[in-house]
Amino acid sequence: MASYETFAKVYDSIMDDTLYDLWTNFSLRHLPKKKHAKLLELACGTGIQSIRFKQAGFDVTGLDLSQDMLELAEKRAQAAQVAIPFVQGNMLDLSSVGKFDYVTCYSDSICYMQDEVEVGDVFKQVYDHLNEDGIFIFDVHSTYQIDEVFPGYSYHENAEDFTMVWDSYADEAPHSVVHELTFFIQEEDGRFTRFDEIHEERTYDILTYDILLEQAGFKSFKVYADFEDKEPDEKSKRWFFICQK
């Protein structure tokens, strides 16, 4: 097994599975029921959420920057006996994927954009690739989560075949954070290989997202918090935006 494939599997094993149920349930509450609705999942990773959407009756396409992740996604879809096209691509350019009724972008993937210009560019791309009255749902970290919760966060995990160290620090830009991840993953010959990853995330206040969505052309949006249909408060950790074209 290629090292990166092992690495992507480790990602899956440290990801809390219950989050996929929460994302699926939230989506099903807020996407109108419509036969064979076309759904594009941005930043689909190893395909777990795409498969959930397919099983819920959507006609799903998954898009991700990482070809390694998509290869795992394809294997996972075959094992689940579902047909999902997985496209290698950047959410800053959706010209290759066609039009959709719904677009989702979960797991704070928008927070990986470099600055608000890129966030606005993603919103415009999504808008241009939605059908009339189409819906875009995405989630981001709240400013509270980035400013108060993450800095100084440290998490270590020891499993039989891998060890992970995860430390988070405040970054220079407002509402930004750096996650430093180090993995030691056991190969088939018993040796451990080290992987280091730096993840930089940034969020904005709700008003900034509001302005960027309006500039992209969205006619309305609602904001909810933490997978529930409730308004955000000052300690909400994750904001969900439901936007209509």
UniProtKB/TrEMBL annotation:
<keyword id="KW-0808">Transferase</keyword>
<dbReference type="GO" id="GO:0008168">
    <property type="term" value="F:methyltransferase activity"/>
</dbReference>
<dbReference type="GO" id="GO:0032259">
    <property type="term" value="P:methylation"/>
</dbReference>
<dbReference type="Pfam" id="PF13649">
    <property type="entry name" value="Methyltransf_25"/>
</dbReference>
<keyword id="KW-0489">Methyltransferase</keyword>
<dbReference type="InterPro" id="IPR029063">
    <property type="entry name" value="SAM-dependent_MTases_sf"/>
</dbReference>
<feature type="domain" description="Methyltransferase">
    <location>
        <begin position="40"/>
        <end position="134"/>
    </location>
</feature>
<dbReference type="InterPro" id="IPR041698">
    <property type="entry name" value="Methyltransf_25"/>
</dbReference>
<protein>
    <submittedName>
        <fullName>Class I SAM-dependent methyltransferase</fullName>
    </submittedName>
</protein>
